[in-house]
């Protein structure tokens, strides 16, 4: 009985399914490639809505997350940037990313999430601040059920402004889990799509290299709406509220609009509670004297940088397999001094 259960699942909540390895390759590879493009200044903003699987740990899958693409992407960014800021607005605590960088000051993790009532994953108390060199570089903003746009955005902007001012990151990674939206099957917040997207708009205004990923989201039509609106925000493009005719249009009935109304869950986040959390976070930030300096090491070369202009290609045109294969590196190709550079990222 036990062996059957192990073969069907990786842990309690990560089922095995056909093409699982290819699925992990695609979403994790997308985030790694996004980081490399930012490192090589091929873009200012890179998006991977398939990524953002923030619960996976070094040695275990967790919370529907198999490989933590965010950690892999941040490790890439650390090759070129002394300090990386990670921001998470998923309804669940970004525990896998926090754990990966809990002992370093080179990555500051900031997670806004539901906490308490045995809500998954059970971590993310405001008192969890990091350890050793990473002390005070893990920031948790634990929230209760029903937080609305006004309260969330005010708290988000206050904390993130102070974080950027204090930490001076060279690049930002933003996880946009859509399960913090009103009406999500597993969520318990009252955020509208515009309220969620306002966080993206605010982070974009810092004009720092930005890697944006998806994350959770269990009411699929609202996930699609949310990330569509946020893609528009990142492109400075105002989208009409009416969804145009498409093969999935039936999922957006009856109003066929991009926006959703605010939720009606009782807001248990009193003004005094939010004020207390804000003051605790800002007090922790005051313990950071200045942005940490880092001795940058020799950067290993990237395996793959595209040698063609993707912007010139028609995004609606499918690329045949032969053309795709020409841009994939063979497994037996190595760069000179491969083994010599293996130790570089161990020091992160």
| Mean model confidence by pLDDT | 85
The rough form would be described as globular
Structural class: alpha/beta
Percent of residues in β-strands: 5-15%
N-to-C order of helices and strands? HHEHEHEEHEHEHHH
Strand order of the largest sheet: 1-6-5-2-3-4
Cα-atom radius of gyration? 20 Å
CATH superfamily: Histone deacetylase domain
In CATH terms, what is the fold-level topology?
A: Arginase, Chain A
Q: Please, how many domains?
A: 1
If classified by CATH, what would the architecture be?
3-Layer(aba) Sandwich
> Could you give the distance between the termini?
42 Å
Low-pLDDT stretches: 1-7, 330-345
Fold and architecture overview:
The protein is α/β, with parallel strands linked by helices and 348 residues long. The protein has a single domain (8-286), classed as Histone deacetylase domain (Arginase, Chain A), CATH 3.40.800.20. 31% of the residues lie in helices and 9% in strands. Strands 1-6-5-2-3-4 form a six-stranded parallel beta sheet, sandwiched between helices. Strand 5, helix 6 and strand 6 (210-213) form a beta-alpha-beta unit. Helix 5 runs parallel beside helix 8.
